[in-house]
Amino acid sequence: MKKQIVEITQRIIKRSEKTRAVYLKKIDSAKSNTVHRASLSCGNLAHGFAACGKEEKQAIKGLNHSDIAIISAYNDMLSAHQPYQTYPQVIKEAIKDTGGIAQFAGGVPAMCDGVTQGQPGMDLSLMSRDVIAMSTAVGLSHNMFDGAVMLGICDKIVPGLLIASMTFGHLPTVFIPAGPMPSGIPNKEKARVRQQFAKGEVDEAALLDAESASYHAPGTCTFFGTANSNQLVVEVMGLHLPGASFVAPNTPLREALTKAASKQVTRLTQQSGNYMPVGKMIDERSIVNAIVALLATGGSTNLTMHIIAFAKAAGIIIDFQDFNDLSKQVPLLTRIYPNGHADINHFQQAGGMALLFKELLNNGLLHEDVETICGRGLTRYTQQPVLENGQLVWVDGVDKSGDPEVITTIDKPFKEDGGLRVLKGNLGVSVLKTSSLRDGSFVINAPAVVFEDQNELQTAFDAGELEKDFVAVVRFQGPKARGMPELHKLTPLLGVLQDKGFKVALVTDGRMSGASGKVPAAIHLCPEAVDGGLISKVKEGDMIMLDGETGELTLQVEEQELNSRVASVFNVNGHHEGMGRELFGFMRRNLSSAETGACSLFDE
After folding, report:
1. CB contact at 8 A, 484 and 431
2. Contact by Cβ (8 Å): 562, 89
3. pLDDT tens sequence across 9-52
4. What is d(CA 180, CA 251) in angstroms, rounded to the nearest whole number?
5. What is the DSSP string of 257-315?
6. Of 2, 11, 130, 142, whose CA is between 20 and 30 Å from 473?
7. C-alpha distances in angstroms, 46 versus 146, 199, 357, 566?
8. Per-residue pLDDT reduced to its tens digit, 323-382
9. Where are the beta strands (DSSP E) in 328-442?
10. What are 381-408's pLDDT values in tens digits?
11. Which pLDDT score, from 0 to 100, does residue 11 have?
């Protein structure tokens, strides 16, 4: 192991010592030496199996077979989750073959950020993660279950399922993916058409044609945004079967992996004699491994908050500085859009997860000796699944990249670091994704142009008022103000200005898309404007220094002048009403800061 990564891990272990001990005591007290339903009264149990068939009822009455919960984010509007429609029956039959039982314990909501970008519904996006965690908890709260399988893919869904899984850490848990859709038009072409539309060079029909050619089939979107970053993180933590993350949906291999994952959870229950609860399986080393893999691949900045949140659910305390310090130790090894032109299918074809595991393990960047759903050690994850004569087997992954422009080696990295910097200064602390930035765009010192809604920036762009060097300050987008919507709508606009030769950047207490691109964006700024952060005092024309090399984010205004200013007040202006937003006030008011996971489920 690389010395510096071990030191950071030890720092996290020490910081988490008390909270982790409390957590482990909690899950120990929740486990059962027999099946969990044995603690239910006859009336409880009768309700629990009333809808089952005769054979399943008999097995459940016997109190000697594991009952596995199925939690699913299926809906047929989301392309990534549409394949899950057929999974419950496949899972039930596979578990029945082991002598166990599976019951569909509950569905969770699943919203698509791609549909809600720039729309009022986006204000619910981050909060949906906490709703998913609570929905999962409701499903598991019946105490019928000895293990769980989680069906989820996209942005807030997997983090929500992970928070719930850690909360029910006494249960063995396996995550089952569905896989990416086939490649559509090249991502570079899609981005080009978006910028053409922003400049008025093509009409909506042309834009819709391009978008429809990109997002065009069942499966996960193929760019390396939050959804695919989620899958990578879950596999690196050992919650997927080896090589399962990016196998295409509706294929024989995908179905074989689903059946195998279903059977695997029964091998981890108390009844199996090989009890491995997920709360003990995932420890501080597993979390560090997740961060390392995210950084090595230039994954979604959204995971900076999500990892903090689900780690906290397991009693592990992570902060932005941990990401920053690990980024200095981990080189960038992949080029997947928006960090390059390839998509996740090209990554899979170039060697995929097995090759990534080999490169990281062979160079001491991952903790190998961790627990996984397949047992102790990550070496198993250097293998890839294949079908031989209709049987699922694992073979050694390739040793060399099939496309060095997509997956490279430690000695020839695309960047020397993991492409993530924490910026600090009088404005507060924020996150900057550097892996997609062009050379020469890491540092910008320019006057502020202040907005309190992303649509205001669109209006200024359309009016030709932004043809200059500037730092766009978009405030009152934080968790407590608006639920921290993504500001992906700004990416094409700022990209157009950057292409014209202007030096532009973004500073916001909101989020950017998991596919944050070439424009420097200091995001997740803490404290947020509504909490009295200095961003609430920025005025038009104030000079701001954003330095992605030194990690500086400074409002260059004399302290005496800042002390004399009155902070701007958030103009709700309908942002808390419509599209269901009025129902989420209690949650929005209780969201923590971005650096503590932007979560309403735990104390700050």
Report:
1. no
2. no
3. 999 999 999 999 999 999 999 999 999 999 999 999 999 999 99
4. 11
5. HHHHHHHHHHTTSGGGT----HHHHS-HHHHHHHHHHHHHTT--THHHHHHHHHHHHTT
6. 130
7. 17, 64, 47, 63
8. 999 999 999 999 998 888 899 999 999 999 999 999 999 999 999 999 999 999 999 999
9. 371-372, 375-376, 383-388, 391-396, 420-425, 428-433
10. 999 999 999 999 999 999 999 999 999 9
11. 98
DSSP annotation of 367: -
Residue 171 to residue 282: CA distance in whole angstroms: 12
What residue type is assigned to position 264 of the chain? Answer: Q
Is 221 annotated as belonging to a binding site?
yes
499 token code pair: 């292409």
Structure tokens at 594: 């971005």
Instruction: Name the packing angle between helices 3-15 and 284-296 (round to 10°).
Output: 130
DSSP-derived secondary structure for 42-80: HHHHHHHHTTS-HHHHHHHHTT-S-EEEEEE---SSSTT
Tracing tokens 């995210």 back to the chain, one arrives at 294
And the tokens for 44?
Answer: 């409880």
How does DSSP classify residue 174? E
Q: Which residues pair with 13 in a beta bridge?
A: none
The domains located in the chain, with CATH, are 3-182+217-396 (no CATH), 420-596 (3.50.30.80)
Sign of CA dihedral 180, 181, 182, 184: negative
**Is residue 42 annotated as involved in ligand binding?**
no
Residues 6+ apart with CB under 8 A from 567: 529, 532, 536, 537
Structure tokens at 582: 């009025």
User: What pLDDT was estimated at residue 7?
Assistant: 98
Encoded tokens for 393:
């087997």
| Per-state percent for the chain, helix, strand, coil, to nearest 5 | 45, 15, 40
Cα-based distances in Å from 274 to 160, 266, 269, 271, 374? 27, 9, 7, 8, 11
Count Cβ neighbours within 10 Å for each residue of 295-310 and write b for 16 or more, e otherwise: bbbbbbbbbbbbbbbb
Give the SS3 label for residue 36: helix
